[in-house]
Amino acid sequence: MSALPGPDSRAIALSFAPMQVEDLDEVMAIESVAYPFPWTHGNFLDSLYSGYEMSAVRLPSGLLVGYYLLMLSVDEAHLLNITVRPELQGRGFGRRMLDHMVEVARAHKMQSVLLEVRPSNDQAVMVYERYGFAGIGVRRAYYPAGDNKREDAIVMRLVL
After folding, report:
1. Is the CB of residue 54 less than 8 Å from the CB of residue 62?
2. Is residue 153 pLDDT above 60, yes or no?
3. CA-wise closest residue to 37 among 132, 148, 140, 159
4. Does residue 101 lie in a domain region?
5. 11 pLDDT band (50/70/90 cuts)?
6. CA 119, CA 114: separation in Å to the nearest integer?
7. How many whole angstroms separate alpha carbon 157 and alpha carbon 134?
8. Are 14 and 96 in contact (CB under 8 A)?
9. Cα–Cα distance, 3 to 99 (Å, whole number)
């Protein structure tokens, strides 16, 4: 792997390109280390074939920083997945990806963006709250969890 950027990503040019099938091996490599219950290759393929707004985010070196998937529906977007490569988290890339995702949602005349997040994912909850998302509900037993259990999801909404 090439040298990783320093702690502040603002000066680094990022490319946001529509995700392609050819990106999925790299996406799956990140997904499998970022989450205890990762999306499957089939989940990503289904999303691609469904025409969701999917972005692969890269450094100038070509290294995949992360990705997001946004489902557009009438006037509300649903952020299905946003992931930053674990070793690059905490450097502002997630914020920049959220900025781009919001631009896409606004360009499609969306009124708001919904997402679900695990209550145990304190870092993500904090990032979303700082960004302006507000909790609007809970989906009970939404996520798989260890020991054959389920974890709730906090439903959050950002008004655009």
Report:
1. no
2. yes
3. 148
4. yes
5. confident
6. 15
7. 5
8. yes
9. 25
Q: How many domains does the chain have?
A: 1
Tokens 């502040």 locate to 8
CATH code of residue 138: 3.40.630.30
Q: Which residues form the domain of 68?
A: 15-159
Maximum CA pair distance of the chain?
A: 44
Residue 65 within any structural domain of the chain = yes
Domain assignment present for 5? no
Q: Which residue has the tokens 């988290």?
A: 89
**Global pTM?**
0.92
96 within domain boundaries: yes
**Does residue 1 carry a pLDDT above 60?**
no
Reported as type and span, the H/E element at residue 155 is strand 149-159
How many residues can be counted in the chain? Answer: 160
Tokens of 46: 């289904």
Nearest one of 40, 36, 37 to 28, comparing CA atoms: 40
* Amino acid of residue 125: V
